[in-house]
Predict the 3D structure of the following.
Amino acid sequence: MNITTVTQTLLYANQLKRTARTGWTQRGVPQAENVAAHSYGVIFTALVLAQFVEPPVDVGRLLAMAALHDLPEAVTTDIPTPAWRYLPPGIKTDVERGAMAHILANTPFANAFMTLWEELHAGETAVARLVEDADKLDMYLQALVYEEQFGNMHLAEFWETSHVFHFPQVQAVYEALRARRMNR
């Protein structure tokens, strides 16, 4: 094991604690969460969802994939979704793949982590689809919390169109969030 490369990878991951979630700050959310806080939200949401989705998923693989899902942002920062719309199709995945390769370079776990990350981006397995659902659901949870906490109505755009999730159980949680928002 090369301690220098492992240490460097840990330092990259630590950068996520200081990388703002740009979409929230652009919409006037004070003290918005950072990418690490969002990653924790995705990990915990995925863990909870795994308890009741069908078919059952490999929880270890799920949590590893969720932990890695935004690691490239340690290098790329959090580029908000509207910005990617103006870039060539597929460029986001290509850029993030390059960032992952850079972050994991020469580590003994590079192949294993890249395999998980590629599986997530292929979106073909139940585990990858559940991480994707957890990522989106965490965003909606956070939007609701920010609206309730700060009265920030600049977040209404998140709710303008209904989101469709891969798992009906996740869809039910999302619909409960929408109902809570409408009833306050």
